[in-house]
User: What shape does this take?
Amino acid sequence: MPDMNAPSDSSAGGDHVVPVAGSLALRHGLMWVVTALAVAALALSITLWQRLGRMQEQLARQSQDAGQQSLEAKAWARQAQDMVKDSASRLNLMESRLGEVALQRGQLEELIQSLSRSRDENLVVDIESALRMALQQAQLTGSTEPLMAALRTAQQRLQRAAQPRLMPVSRAVEKDLERLRSLQTPDLPGLLQRLDEGVAQIDALVLASQPVALAPLQGASEPALDRPRWWNQGLQQTLDALRDLVRITKIQSPEAMLLSPEQSFFLRENLKLKLLNARLGLLAHQYEAVRADLHQVIAAVRRYADPQSRKTQTLIQLLEQAQQQLQKGESPRLDASLAALATAAAGR
Assistant: This one.
């Protein structure tokens, strides 16, 4: 093998050895470069292949996840559709039930209103019956306490009811209560006693048609000393006969003088009946009828009785006092309450 470091002759072919060695080195370097490039390319390819594999795996996983998510989304969509259908059916059911509830509520409100009207009507009827019964008790007993108690009870029941349509009835009850509190009742025992005294005085009443006895003539009752006894007796009998035939009466009412004894009897009886009727009216608290009877009796006494008689004046004074006492009295009435109850019962 020739020595690469020995000097070679240029004539011995030195020009051909130098190019061969440089070519080999160049080829050897190129081979290393190509090899390095191939290795690098292989490494790069391997790297790219690995990355591509990883990307494929990632894409596969993502595709698998996307498919699973799609399946889940489809399941959720199907479930949502089912829920929508279920909600729609429930909504329809709720709407139908709501319609039924509204219908039942309307029926219930109508029933409540009907029961309320029925309760109000029953309340009005009960209050009216209680007031009328209390009015009868007040007329029988002459006391306003039954009426006051009935009105207070009615007022409490109306306040508990609290119905606007019954407010006029409540105001009318309050008005009657105020009027009864200020009502003056007459003295019934005193009036009854006066009427009884009046009935007792009718029989002793002196009528204008009754004859007035003549006063005895002066000296006629005593026999004269200078006259015979038979003369005095005859004169006395004659004077008695004349006194029976002649009547001296002061006439103020001409028709009073036309009463016969029988008519006088019936006049007295009629006056008694009038006073007894007034007594019954007083017990029944019919004060207007009692006033009318007393007025008629007083007018009849003034017309047919002797005005100069003390008994006539006493009787007239007694009846006028009874009449004055009646002026202070007033029959208890419930006009406002009964009218308001009638209006409420009529539904106005």
